[in-house]
Design goal:
Layout (H helix, E strand, L loop, with lengths): L2 H6 L3 E3 L4 H19 L8 H23 L1 E3 L2 H10 L3 H19 L6 H25 L1
Antiparallel strand pairs: 1-2
Helix pairs in contact: 2-3, 3-5, 3-6, 4-5
Length: 138
């Protein structure tokens, strides 16, 4: 499978480049990240914190897609989008966190506070990387 397959299936749409959408998504991601950083990871919050950090990362990838002229409707397609952009390592990392988030959100997997700390730290590094990259593009 590749990014073009997602376009053919209608899970990715070609659009005009949308800098305003990208800027809005970045602002939303920054706001969400501030909220998440204010919260403590514990037994009750661990699951939601992992999902929250993942959502911030996905918002930034949506901003990248908007700057590239795409609207992506499948989280899996972001992996192939990143590959297309030459970001193979980040694509692999994203896919790992996507699968963790899916297990947490859809299959009831529990996450310990220690696991959540590790995941949020890893996702946080990706968030910083893509924030810098996006700020250079806008």
């Amino acid at each position: 499978m590749n990014f073009e397959d997602f376009i053919k299936k209608g899970l990715v749409k070609k659009k005009d480049i949308d800098k305003n959408l990208a800027k809005s998504l970045i602002v939303a991601a920054e706001s969400d990240l501030k909220f998440l950083k204010r919260n403590k990871i514990d037994d009750v919050s661990a699951r939601k914190m992992v999902s929250g950090y993942y959502d911030v990362l996905r918002e930034l990838l949506e901003a990248m897609a908007a700057l590239s002229g795409y609207k992506i409707y499948s989280h899996e397609a972001f992996f192939y989008f990143l590959e297309e952009k030459g970001e193979d390592v980040m694509g692999e990392k994203f896919n790992r966190f996507r699968l963790i988030r899916n297990r947490v959100n859809y299959y009831g997997k529990t996450v310990s506070p220690n696991e959540a700390e590790e995941y949020c730290l890893g996702i946080g590094k990706m968030i910083k990387y893509f924030m810098r990259k996006l700020n250079d593009e806008i």
